[in-house]
């Protein structure tokens, strides 16, 4: 039986840390950035840890 392929879209959106946490970019950084304050855009641009329940599904999609 062939190996399972990892999900291409998930590979582009999430990354795993050395300890196994799943990181993602903050939502709301695609458009309407002129209206948002620089303080907000800096905060949203930082990578965030994904919730444990979601992380389980994402790891499955990444085949990890």
TrEMBL record:
Report the Gene3D superfamilies cross-referenced here: 4.10.410.60
- Coiled-coil regions in this chain? none
State the similarity comment: Belongs to the bacterial ribosomal protein bL35 family.
Q: Name one GO cellular component term.
A: cytosolic large ribosomal subunit
Keywords assigned by UniProt, alphabetized? Ribonucleoprotein, Ribosomal protein
Pfam families hit by this protein: Ribosomal_L35p (PF01632)
Q: Name one GO biological process term.
A: translation
Question: Which HAMAP family is this protein grouped with?
Answer: Ribosomal_bL35
InterPro entries for this protein: Ribosomal_bL35, Ribosomal_bL35-like, Ribosomal_bL35_sf
**Region feature (Disordered):** 1-45
Q: Which organism is it from?
A: freshwater metagenome
Q: Which GO terms describe its molecular function?
A: structural constituent of ribosome
This protein is called what? Unannotated protein
């Amino acid at each position: 039986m062939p190996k399972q392929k990892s999900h291409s879209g998930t590979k582009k959106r999430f990354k795993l840390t050395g300890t196994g946490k799943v990181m993602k970019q903050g939502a709301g950084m695609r458009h309407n950035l002129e209206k948002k304050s620089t303080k907000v855009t800096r905060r949203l641009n930082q990578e965030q840890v994904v919730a444990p329940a979601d992380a389980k599904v994402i790891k499955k999609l990444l085949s990890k």
